[in-house]
Amino acid sequence: MYKIAIIESEPIIREGLCILLSKEPGFTVVFQASAPAALFHQVWQTPPKLVLLDMMMPKRYGVEVIQEIKRRWQTTKILIFTLKDTEENIYAAFRAGADGYILKGTTLPQLVEAIKNIVAGQYYVCADILPKIIHSYVEAEKEPIDNRLSCNLTYREAQLLKLIAAGYKNKEIANSLCISIKTVETHRATLMKKFNAHNVATLLSVAGQAGSGFSPQT
Predict the structure, then answer these.
(1) Where does the pLDDT of residue 57 fall: very low under 50, low under 70, confident under 90, or very high at 90 and above?
(2) How far apart are CA 16 and CA 35, in angstroms?
(3) C-alpha–C-alpha distance, residues 92 and 85, integer Å
(4) What CATH number does the domain located at 2-138 have?
(5) How would DSSP label each residue in the chain?
(6) Closest by Cα among 93, 86, 88, 91 to 70
(7) Is pTM beyond 0.70 here?
(8) Does position 105 have pLDDT exceeding 80, yes or no?
(9) Pairing mode of beta strands 124-125, 100-103
(10) pLDDT of res. 215
(11) What digits encode the pLDDT tens for the residues 135-171?
(12) How far apart are CA 134 and CA 129, in angstroms?
């Protein structure tokens, strides 16, 4: 049984969703309201499986609502149902804990598919916003690796990474930086953890991608 709560600011849309979803086999609308505050006044013996949440509200408030739902009912899924299709809003919703994101121009079969997929433990986005997500991912991948790495490294770690890329051994690095071999080993271990490198070869691969043009942050 799919127990669904609907938070939608427009009464005609909210009532239409209740009628349509209630006709779907196994779907039950257990709660509906125009604002999230009403949802938080409920004391659920068994929380809804999914909250269909209208995001036509101030962005920060919307993010806080998603976070609060997840804090109160960890197993409850959240499907954003909105007109907002900017990359900023999409990523803000998923970072806050949303499980799916669809636009209000979607069809009923698509909405039903989204709900079923999300309750089954999958993430879901409608086809209309998929290009935006792909575009954002591709642009992030185009960012020079030295920019992406440097924001996570201390100045000393960046120095060490450049020396590893140049093929220096621990003792040579220690002499070059005037630090102990133990300190070099500690920094190397930290670098491996930061870049999820489980062996020296993988760490060297990361260092090689950074290249000699790597510019550390001070």
Answers:
(1) low
(2) 17
(3) 11
(4) 3.40.50.2300
(5) -EEEEEE-SSHHHHHHHHHHHHTSTTEEEEEEESSHHHHTT---SS--SEEEEE--S-HHHHHHHHHHHHHH-TT-EEEEEES---HHHHHHHHHHT-SEEEETT--HHHHHHHHHHHHTT--EE-TTTHHHHHHHHHHHHHS-HHHHHHTT--HHHHHHHHHHHTT--HHHHHHHHT--HHHHHHHHHHHHHHTT--SHHHHHHHHHHH-TT-----
(6) 93
(7) no
(8) yes
(9) parallel
(10) 43
(11) 666 665 555 545 545 556 777 887 887 787 777 888 8
(12) 9
Tell me, yes or no, if the two domains 2-138 and 145-210 fold the same way: no
Q: Do residues 48 and 3 make contact, with C-beta atoms less than 8 angstroms apart?
A: yes
* Summary mean pLDDT of the chain: 82
Domain ranges for the chain, please list them.
2-138, 145-210
Is the Cβ–Cβ distance between 156 and 216 less than 8 Å?
Answer: no
Judge contact between 70 and 97, C-beta under 8 A: yes
CA distances from 174 to 31, 83, 139, 142 (A): 64, 57, 38, 34
Q: Which CATH number among 2.170.8.10, 1.10.10.10, 1.10.600.10, 2.40.128.130 corresponds to the domain 145-210? A: 1.10.10.10
Q: Which residue has the tokens 């499986």?
A: 49
What local confidence, expressed as pLDDT, does residue 211 receive?
A: 45
d(CA 75, CA 119): 9
